[in-house]
Amino acid sequence: MAQKTQETTQGRVFVSYSRKDLDVAEALRDALIARGFDAFLDIHDIDPGEKWKDRLGDLIASAEKIVFLISPDSVASDICEWEIDRAERLGKSILPVVVRETPAETIPGRLADINFIFYRSEDERPAGLQKLLKALTTDLAWEREKTRINDLAMVWANAGRPARLLTWREDAIRALERWRDGHPATSPAPTDVQLAYVSESRLRFTRRQRWIRGGLATGLTAMTALAAAAVFLGLLSEERRVEAETQRAVAENQRDQALTTQSLFLADLAQQEGRRGATGMLLALAGLPDQTTVTGAPLSDRPYALEAERALFAGLLVNRERLVLQGHSSIVTSVTFSPYGTRLATASDDNTARLWDAATGEEIAALQGHSGRVISVAFSPDGTRLATASAD
Description:
By secondary structure, this protein is of the alpha/beta class.
């Protein structure tokens, strides 16, 4: 039986089938895995104790394409029908593969409208497999991006479509729009939720840019007026000095309002980014006054914004960061706690595993000896031993 490789090179495929066609499904899965695909089959990809239907839905959502094995039993199966419904709602490409003769009138119209691949006998299977491989790799890049965007859109939709879960970078939004406008004729169109996610990201971003430009323009105007007032103050006669002082006070007030607007904008942006990690906390800090000098005077004149401080502490709660473990020189690939939670073990692409004190974050030991990246680490049930697995 073929084993899945560490990384998928050709794409992710979900195989929907009747249990009476299990032998064919297993053989097809092995053939796909041998050719670099990550092929999902329920009996291999649902663990004991898992909620099987939820797991099925997740496997379908994560796959770029769905292979449906057509037989008299699969077209009559309620579970197979549910799997196809789920795939259609997510806009997945469905490839019908005929593995047993099936009366045409029993095949659902949504499958009958798609060109079949025949895989009924040993004679048909070599040619059928080649046709399937070609169909699986057609428009794969667009389908992969669709799967990624669908994950973002579904989280956004299920959370009530809040603005903070939209895409906010200009380059990322342009990539979303290129994907939407580049829909290939051989793939199902983007779903309504996916299209709404793209459109709403652009709309909110455009509104925010207008707000920023307005705030910056106000700030520049105020600062220019302030500089002009300072120059002319020395040239004005005594009787007009009071009027000039008044104008300068107005300019200072406008400048403070502009800086406050910038602080509030940074605080709002921090709330949008808060779920992505430390970025939201850094934005909140940027919206607060700089630390003071030894005399107590601030290093900048940015006004205090309560919203920025709230966003900072909200970020602390969301991220729940307590300790930073420093020692690895490359990507960390695996993390695990000891059975009693007193130790922490990590594996890394730097060819080492490391043992840490979970309470203090101090490194206890660096385990060296592997000649390749360490991909997994695990404690024994009693916590006295550590096992590592490496690419070597």
